[in-house]
Amino acid sequence: RPGHTWRYCAMSEDALIAAESLPYLGLFVALAVICAVLYVRNASVTAVQTSPEFKAFQWDYLAVYWTMQFADWLQGPYIYALYGARGFTQGQIGILFVAGFGSALILGTFIGSLADKTGRRLNCLAFAVVYSVSCMLTHSESFELLIVGRILGGIAGSILNTAFEAWMVSEHNSRGFNGAWLGSTFSFAIFGSGVAAISAGLVAAPLVSRFGVTAPFDLSAIVLCIGAGVVLLRWNENYGSRSEGDGPTSTMASFTRAIGVLT
């Protein structure tokens, strides 16, 4: 019957995609195990004695950072596919990408100073809100609204690459932890970001095949909300000191210098 035939075809397609993904999943697991073994072996040789308080703080940060990175990586491979599915020309898609990268270029010149002034925790929460709105706008077929979404995505990218690490470093120092321990946190963060990127690809592919090209963006918004919840519950607020140059004058000076370099 037609209904049974359709379900059979859909199941066959899902099974085919799963079968094609299996070798990559196996390779990912094997490489992850190898990396974990090498990391543990190296850590046992170069281990630095830390404290339980530092470990708790470190994992509070890493849990959020990896979550936000995972949300970001979910979207990346499907942005072009999303716009193509909307029927836009290559020229229009180029404009959308320029809007996103352009907003990141302009705002990235002073977003760090702004976070120092308004609060880094607040900026991390703003990242989750702004990026979630950007994800929701992917359901629109309006070119103008999609441009707004790309601009918001560029703003979110600037915050992701500045405010989170700035919060961690400032909080690390304010709690009196050994400066040598920072390397451990950065090492975990970079390694976890790579794992998040691969995991996001493995999760997003079957979602797209079953629910459509907007599915990774919907999941990303959910993940962003989870990360924001952890920030609300576990993170303290911190600010940049005057010696770090926060304030309107420093912000405008940073923006002016950046424009001078570009021109």
Describe this structure in words.
The protein is an all-alpha fold and 263 residues long. Helices cover 81% and strands 0% of the residues. The chain has eleven helices and no strands. The protein starts with a helix and ends with a helix. Mean pLDDT is 83; it is low at 2-11 and 243-248.
List keywords for this structure.
263 residues, mainly alpha, disordered N terminus
Topology of helices and strands:
Layout: H1 2-45, H2 52-75, H3 79-85, H4 90-107, H5 111-118, H6 120-136, H7 143-160, H8 163-174, H9 182-211, H10 215-234, H11 248-262
- Determine the strand fraction and express it as a percent band: under 5%
Q: Tell me how many strands there are.
A: 0
The succession of helices and strands, N to C, reads HHHHHHHHHHH
On the 0-100 scale, what is the average pLDDT? 83
Can you summarize the main beta sheet?
none
- The helix fraction, in percent, is over 70%
| Low-confidence regions | 2-11, 243-248
**What is the radius of gyration?**
21 Å
Number of helices: 11
Describe the global form: globular
Structural class based on helices, strands and sheet pairing = mainly alpha
Distance between the termini: 66 Å
Short description:
With 263 residues, the chain is an all-alpha fold. The chain is 81% helix and 0% strand.
